[in-house]
């Protein structure tokens, strides 16, 4: 994380490169560390705040924090709803939903 933040200063262009897959300068590469619990989202959030205090606020840091929020939200959403998140009808306990189709509109 410190290499990404400070050594490479990659957070300064995160918004532009976050969806890249190949190369060390694309995305934060923190996902595996979040997934196995070696790194917490709260820790990265507070380190991001330290980075902002030293380097200034930018759209890139705002976007990075927003992505941390969504990761945390989805983690706890799936803790709450489990495999229902992957079912055809989502988290609702529906077996079958009869959609009404207006053939004149189609």
Summarize the structure.
Helices cover 50% and strands 0% of the residues. With 106 residues, it is mostly helical.
List the helices and strands and how they pair.
Blueprint: H1 2-7, H2 14-17, H3 31-35, H4 41-55, H5 59-81
Q: What attributes characterize this protein structure?
A:
Serine Threonine Protein Phosphatase 5, Tetratricopeptide repeat; 5 helices; 0% strand; mainly alpha; 106 residues; 50% helix
Structure description:
This protein is mostly helical. It has a single domain, classed as Serine Threonine Protein Phosphatase 5, Tetratricopeptide repeat, CATH 1.25.40. 50% of the residues lie in helices and 0% in strands. The chain is built from five helices and no strands. Helix 4 packs antiparallel against helix 5. The longest helix is centred in the middle third of the chain and has 23 residues. The protein is elongated.
Quaternary structure state of the chains depicted:
single chain
The CATH C-level class name = Mainly Alpha
Helix proportion of residues, in percent?
Answer: 40-55%
- What radius of gyration results from the CA coordinates? 19 Å
Strand content: under 5%
Tally of domains: 1
Largest pleated sheet: none
Per CATH, which architecture?
Alpha Horseshoe
Total DSSP helices: 5
Low-confidence stretches: none
Number of strands: 0
The average pLDDT value, as a whole number, equals 86
User: Could you state the order of secondary-structure elements as H and E?
Assistant: HHHHH
Distance between the termini: 51 Å
CATH-assigned fold name: Serine Threonine Protein Phosphatase 5, Tetratricopeptide repeat
Structural class: mainly alpha
Shape: elongated
């Amino acid at each position: 994380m410190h290499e990404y933040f400070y050594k490479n200063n990659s957070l300064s262009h995160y918004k532009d490169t976050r969806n890249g897959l190949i190369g060390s300068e694309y995305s934060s590469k923190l996902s595996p560390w979040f997934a196995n619990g070696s790194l917490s989202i709260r820790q990265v959030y507070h380190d991001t705040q330290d980075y902002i205090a030293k380097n200034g606020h930018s759209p890139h840091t705002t976007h990075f924090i927003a992505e941390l929020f969504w990761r945390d939200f989805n983690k706890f959403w799936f803790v709450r709803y489990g495999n229902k998140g992957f079912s055809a009808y989502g988290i609702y306990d529906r077996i079958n939903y009869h959609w009404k189709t207006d053939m004149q509109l189609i």
